[in-house]
Design goal:
Helices cover 49% and strands 7% of the residues. It is α/β, with parallel strands linked by helices. The protein has 2 domains: 345 residues, Metal-dependent hydrolases (TIM Barrel); 94 residues, uronate isomerase, domain 2, chain A, CATH 1.10.2020.10. The longest helix is centred in the middle third of the chain and has 21 residues.
């Protein structure tokens, strides 16, 4: 993994080293914990910063026959790291193999291939480095040339950690994103009641009706905007766009509020109404709305009960997306209330559908107003990124793409931007070498810079923040 890793010709090398490599990073969607940024956490060892919460690694370890005690259990941190190191050689051709060694190199200067044989030495070396100020959370981020990160936050959150970061006048912007997923989840009436209690506590007002809920979410949305937020996000199996009346939805809400279970069709109507109302809030305040569609979550009920969500039991779903997505966007567009929108699909079968869907609603009011978001989750690897970039090129304007994000819970995940940039530059470089694109390095280099940074800076309206 030398300087020319993934760069297969001199044009790719020029594009990466002279145009892409030095561009700052805007990570507009991730799951980093803002409390650890606010406190500038100093991690005790590499297991805590690298393995805890990383279900990509956990799935690989389970597949490699590692017992759960050495993954999410109570085993000592050093033994967990040893188990991961023994797994790494078996991840050949999985993106984890590349990511693992990029991260060891970029954050710790370690170029050796990780294995069970050198795990002890690397554990000690990295643990010692993690105790230094250079490897506190904030320096881990600034060392990767990060300018803006957007965390994922519930409407009930008080955003106290974001306020602390802003008061510190730190050089990196850390902004909250409004993610009201739990307001849609009436499938479990008991859990929904608990969530409404959280919202009531955050807002100081009771929720006794559907209209009360919408008004409360409006106030929370306004609060997020006052704290610098300009992005919302939804993580859904599929888009909901059922026909409904306000009276129907009010009755469905009341039914669940009273502790009763709604039917499947009632749940779909309720979710359709909430999504529409949230889209109106995003338009009203000029937010960018994001929709992550297609994950089939918590498939292993035994392990879900034992470990909870987001622990590695999710997969790609085969939901029907196009018709409902078109109907949802068309309603907003027809009413002139469609804000800037980013669509992400998890099932690669939907690639062409999403790539063409955005063209239906790009109206010339803003370059790339409707975006097909970067290859997501199971698709954010070399093959998935290449397919995404090629499909977007064929059916839209790659030059207006807002680029890569980490979608990660790890502070060591930012070399994924480098990984993406190398793949991007190699794509362009190969076609220059083949005579399919002109040897106009200044122009193609400027397009590369736009995709790496400038397009996102313009799209989100974020400017560099100087301390």
């Amino acid at each position: 993994m030398d300087d020319h890793f993934l760069l297969q010709n001199r044009y790719a090398e020029i594009l990466y080293h002279e145009y892409a490599a030095a561009m700052p990073i805007i990570d507009y969607h991730n799951h980093l914990p803002p409390d650890e940024i606010a406190s500038n956490r100093q991690f005790e060892n590499i297991t805590r910063v690298w393995l805890n919460g990383d279900h990509y690694k956990w799935r690989a370890m389970r597949t490699n026959g590692i017992p759960e005690d050495l993954i999410t259990g109570d085993a000592p941190d050093e033994k967990k790291f040893q188990a991961w190191a023994e797994t790494v050689p078996f991840t050949l051709r999985n993106p984890l193999y590349h990511w693992t060694h990029l991260e060891l190199t970029r954050y710790f200067g370690i170029t050796a291939l990780l294995s069970g044989n050198n795990a002890g030495h690397i554990y000690e070396q990295t643990t010692e480095m993690l105790q230094q100020p250079s490897h506190g959370v904030r320096n881990l981020l600034s060392g990767m040339n990060v300018r803006v990160i957007c965390t994922t936050d519930d409407p009930a959150d008080n955003l106290e950690h974001h306020l602390k970061i802003r008061e510190d006048q730190w050089s990196i912007k850390v902004l909250p994103a409004f993610r009201p997923d739990k307001a849609l989840q009436i499938d479990d009436p008991i859990a929904f009641q608990f969530y409404l209690s959280r919202l009531e506590a955050a807002d100081g007002q009771s929720v006794n009706s559907y209209r009360d809920l919408i008004e409360l979410l409006d106030r929370r949305h306004a609060f997020f905007a006052s704290q610098g937020s300009s992005v919302s996000d939804h993580g859904l199996e599929e888009m909901y766009a059922e026909d409904y009346t306000d009276s129907e939805v009010a009755a469905i809400f009341q039914k669940v509020r009273d502790g009763h279970t709604a039917s499947l069709q009632e749940r779909r109507k309720y979710k359709s109404a909430i999504l529409y109302e949230m889209a109106l809030l995003d338009h009203k305040r000029g937010f960018v709305q994001q929709f992550h569609l297609g994950a089939l979550r918590n498939n292993n009920s035994r392990m879900m009960k034992r470990l909870g969500p987001d622990t590695g039991w999710d997969s790609i779903g085969d939901f029907s997306q196009a018709a409902s997505l078109a109907k949802f966007l068309d309603r907003l567009d027809r009413e002139d209330r469609l804000t800037r929108t980013i669509l992400y699909n998890l099932n690669p079968v939907d690639n062409e559908s999403f790539a063409t869907m955005i063209g239906n609603f790009n109206d010339g009011s803003f370059a790339g107003k409707i975006q097909w978001g970067s290859a997501w989750w199971f698709l954010d690897q070399k093959d998935g990124m290449s397919k995404h970039l090629n499909t977007l090129s064929n059916m839209g304007l790659l030059s207006r793409f807002v680029g890569m994000l980490t979608d990660s819970r790890s502070f060591l995940s930012f070399p994924r931007h480098e990984y993406f940039r190398r793949i991007l530059c190699n794509l362009f470089g190969t076609e220059i070498a083949n005579g399919e694109l002109p040897e106009d390095m200044p122009w193609i280099g400027s397009v590369v810079r736009d995709i790496c940074y400038h397009n996102a800076a313009r799209y989100f309206g974020w400017t560099e923040h100087k301390s």
